[in-house]
Amino acid sequence: MNEQGKDYILRRLRAEINVGGHIIGAAVGSGMTAKLAAMGGADILLALSAGKFRIMGRSSLSSFFCYGNSNQIVMEMGKREIFPVVQDVPLLFGLMASDPYLKLFDYLQEIKESGFVGVVNSPTLAQVDGLFREALEEEGNSYDREVAAIRLANQMNLLTMAFVCSIEETEKMIDAQADIICFHMGLTAGGLLGAKRHLSISEARGLAEKIFALCKERNPDILRFVYAGPANKLMDMQYLYRNTSCQGYIGGSTFDRIPMEESIYAAVSSFKNHSHPETLGNLRERKWGSNQLVESMRHYIEEHYGDEVKLSDIAMVAHMSPSYLGGRFKKEVGMSFTDYLLQFRMGKAKELMRSNRNLSCKEVALQVGYEDYAQFSKMFHKYEGLSPREYQGINKKR
Amino acid sequence: MLRKNRQEIVEGFQEHLSKGKLLVGVGSGMEQIAKHGDKSGADFLVFYHTGHLQSAGRSLLAGILSYDDANTCLQESSNEVLYTMRKIPVLAGVCGTDPFRKMDMFLGELKERGFHGVQNFPTVGIVDGRFRANLEGTGIGYQLEVDMIRAAHELDLFTCPIVFDAEQGEAMTMAGADMLLVHFGLVTKGAKARGEVPSLEDCCEKLRQIMEKSNAIRRHIPILCYGIQVSSLEGAMQVIQRLPSLAGFFTVFPGNVEDSERDMTGRIKEYRTLDKLKKAAHRLRIAE
Hints:
Chain A contains 19 helices and eight strands.
């Protein structure tokens, strides 16, 4: 891919926009997501440390923090995971340009030699705000370093994509001659690890319009994309395509975290809870209010009275102590779990004997969960005051 | 290496305070400097992972960014400091939000290595704005640091967490912190220019609130403070006058990049003033 050069890739991206209307990019964090995104038709891939963290089940924002060197993570991922499986889609390197350990020129050279077609400033300080941002900037961890890196990368004939969050940043990146300006709309909304606070889609549209207008005015050749944020559905993107001059969408969580969360969860839970999906699901996920828990236990008895039922097993599945669970049950139902189970089984046994007079007492015992007939008979006697056979006799006479 | 357990350290500090003396803590990320902790007269040292970064010209603050794996760096660079320090306890700056650690096991390793205690550093408490809100929203929150301090306390490590407000002070005290370090917040050049630096009064008020809340949970929990407002002797004196129950101060070496620059340029300038002297002497010699 690299041999074809930046100009060729840009030509191809433009052709894609002319023909298909827009570009789809994917921010990837592993060989699998890169491969699948490429197969799905992504026009460009971004190797980002945020992607790696997502694949590891951590929030994208982890990529900003001292859990590893972002650039090393991306370099290793690109070389080991992505390039061996994806050759035909251009891959950008997510560069944290403020890294004090970098000799920028040499590192960009290394990036190029490793096979990346270009760079994108990510994790970017554009996402950081407040006094924290100001303090970081003042001591050299600055957005300007990212701008400088984009400028240098351009001179080294690398494809450059610039993440921007504001008009000022856009201006700087246009001056640095970035090939693609990508409006970073913040964290992706939705899913288990999604942002709780984010731009609304109409706020995003407003800012996107301004940023793209500036791009068009200064240099109409710059490609104009948006990244992540509130647009995690096709519908949102169609809204942005219609209402701004946006030419492409880069998805992060949209193309890895959210689909994976949904499909893995669904696959495993469908195997696990195939017979009684709701009851067990409720118990396992602790989806209960004050009375739902006991309700779920009663459902469980209804479904399983024919098998062995143990309070200790239910407790373990629900991650609670048997004594607590038993206490709750007694408090809400008015009798102990064992008594309730016994009553339920005896009720069922009588029902069976009444409805099917040809059933032997032994079979009835088996059907209500007693392997041992003697035990069943004893319990029945205790409960009804007469043996099962006597009960059956009375029934037959009627 | 100082052989003292948590109880002994706590008692030592209490005795110290009961004599009416202040506690002074010192933090450093540079091994070469941290090793002087013993001779410095400080009461305890907190060792940070930021040595490499500081060598590369950044300050402690940059320690929070994804340039290094903080907890790994800390482990790798701590040996020499731990071996040289013989008189005062050494605490580790532990990144409590690290999602790749089973925290109690990691703390156990630190204890075995010889650390007497821990502090939550780098801390997300220093982060503000929308970015901070998003951090908390996606599970990278201050609460994880509270949990870390609790785990450390359960392992009988001495804990001196950094707190920024009364709520955090409360949470940390509940988690078992032996001492609190109140951070007065970031001060940037920009904020100075805009006149937005919290005044000494504001800081004292905040300190008072924190003292009140945390003392309600555990009486006489020692509270230290740190900030540009008390970096001068004058500021520190004023705080002590207003709040005599303050246990002491904390300081960091080297501080920010600016400080080291100032120290260096100051020294060079001193020598530069000798230029004239040299020239004069030279002229004299020629005249002779």
